[in-house]
Amino acid sequence: MQPFQATVPKDGKSWWLRLGREGLPEKFIFTLLMDMVPDCFLNVMSDVEVLSQMGEYTVYAGEFEGERLGVLFHGSGSFSVSTAIDEMAALGVKAILRVGNSGALSPDLRVGDILVCSGGIREDRVMLDYVPLEYPAIPSRNLVEAEIHACGEAGVRFQEGLTLSVGTMYPGSGFQTAIGVLDEEVLRKVHLWKRVGARNVDIETSTVLVMSRLFGIHGGALLGIGNDTSSGEGEFLERELTDRMALLGLKSLRHLNLETAKLPEPLRTEP
After folding, report:
1. Quick one: which of 215, 205, 210 has its CA closest to 89?
2. 85 closest CA partner among 237, 264, 205
């Protein structure tokens, strides 16, 4: 079956990100303005340049500890992240680390904690357009090890665990909508995931993990705990925490050696 033809801009750059291969770093942080401001990253980088700005996307590149790394700010949710990853993969990017906010599900996670994601629970639904639900959402082992190394090197306490990634902010996370609980089965499902080990909840991580694995990219997530979904404590990530997370994220990418940490080439499909 023949696929439809996506529009290719006349300048040859990608449609959404407006990027080309030339000068593009191989390793990227993915985050969003609602979670972290650009200065968290840019203040510890040098020779920073804006590679593109288009709609909800802003892409930076700069030097960090002798290596050129990228930081991409995207919109909220799986659609925005999946579009960016698809274009980044086509441009040859080799590693994507999500750094951002999440809500605690586990009672032993506190507001201000940091979690290294060891796997995702796929409730985002968007990824079903790419691959069936049985396909796992698991990070690159090499990138997880790089995150742990970075935390240890900085003396930062962290936890590990499964992240529940949902498709909607309010009912998907177990919260009431503007008119209350509409579907108790959705709420019951969130309670089930919490009971069987989901440590935190967000709306982007499983997308990063599934697509990076599909496309032969190192993928992972370093997540701060901004709020507690049981007590309602907390709100946005504190600046001190986001500065720490930005530094840890950049150091994690630095510790990832693409020469020794090679992933299998993805299978190419033919129409």
Report:
1. 215
2. 205
Residue 261 belongs to some domain of the structure? no
State the number of CA atoms in the 13 A half-sphere of 16 facing the CB: 19
Mean pLDDT in residue range 104-118: 98
For 13-48, write each residue's pLDDT tens digit. Answer: 999 999 999 999 999 999 999 999 999 999 999 999
Domain count, the chain: 1
Contact 38, 53 (CB under 8 A): no
pLDDT of the residue at 242: 98
**Residue-number span of the structural domain to which 231 is assigned:** 27-255
Q: Does 227 map to a domain?
A: yes
Q: Which pLDDT value is given to residue 262?
A: 80
pLDDT of residue 45: 98
Whether residue 267 is contained in a domain is answered as: no
What confidence score (pLDDT) does residue 271 get? 57
Q: What is the CATH number of the domain that holds 175?
A: 3.40.50.1580
- Whether 107 is in a domain gets the answer yes
Q: What is the 3-state secondary structure (H, E, C) of the chain?
A: CCCCCCCCCCCCCCCCCCCCCCCCCCEEEEECCCCCCCHHHHCCCEEEEEEEEECCEEEEEEEECCEEEEEEECCCCHHHHHHHHHHHHHCCCCEEEEEEEEEECCCCCCCCCEEEEEEEEEECCHHHHCCCCCCCECCCHHHHHHHHHHHHHHCCCCEEEEEEEECCCCCCCCCCECCECCCHHHHHHHHHHHHCCEEEEECCHHHHHHHHHHCCCEEEEEEEEEEECCCCCECCCCHHHHHHHHHHHHHHHHHCCCCCCCCCCCCCCCC
Mean pLDDT, residues 35-62 taken together: 98
Q: What is the mean pLDDT of residues 127-144?
A: 97
